[in-house]
Amino acid sequence: MPGNEPRRHPPKVLHSVDSPAYWQQARVLVVDDHATYRLLVGSLLQVLGVSHETCGDGRMALQALASRHFDLVISDCRMPVMDGYAMTREWRRRERITGKPGIPIIAMTGRLGLEEVQRCLGCGMDGWLVKPIGLWQLRELLTEWLAPAPMHAAQVRVQPARRRREQLPSRASLTATFGSWAVVETMLASLAREAREDLAMLVQARISGDAVLTSQRLHRLAGSVAFLGATRLEQHAAVLIDRVQASGVEVNRQALELFHREVERYLLRLHKL
Q1: How distant is the alpha carbon of residue 181 from its chain centre?
Q2: What is the DSSP secondary structure assignment for residue 144, as one 8-state letter?
Q3: Cα dihedral 2, 173, 136, 180 sign
Q4: How far is CA 201 from the centre of its chain?
Q5: Domains of the chain
Q6: What's any one GO cellular component for it (predicted)?
């Protein structure tokens, strides 16, 4: 669950692939409030032969960074407790005070619009990794940012946003993206479990009329439905968050109930893959 202590060794689900020898000495910190994304990126890093830890919010990430060495940070932007923007801004402040060299911090985001780019640059992030994240996409990122020091690029490297997909991919395309069907099954099981927990909390938030909790759970569900690529559901969640924050829960009750049913249908389709 989000907020647990950093994990060093996710389940072994893939065979290793060829990677540069110097990656074996590198350490990566993965920060995301979704356990599914932590499991995914951690598993892919293990396949690539890269040591890593994971944690569930920016505050935990700062604690890890202060006590252990990392060569790269991959962080979600929007998280409870402390988001990726605030975490990066605070860590850059500490680097300036201590005079330590900057650790590359890469945003992990479901969308890459002008606002997201401006916020990432403004807080001191170095680049972007656009969900959904596959093995070869992550390998390209590591090739750039885990290169020996003299080879590091002096400019921000932006991972291009992908075209939005409206249909779920096939078993074959998911296997090609994530490396094996065993990985996909593990990810889908974790995704469904987290999404159903968030749906249950969303029901409680609707009953109590808690706009803050409703917005938080909508954001987490948006991350869940974007796991395999952006969908109309993700856009629907973003609109609902704005509406709930502007006018409250009661006014949007019917729209929230409709969104709940749509997510249930989405999860059923994933189960049938």
Answers
A1: 20
A2: H
A3: positive
A4: 20
A5: 21-158 (3.40.50.2300), 171-271 (1.20.120)
A6: plasma membrane
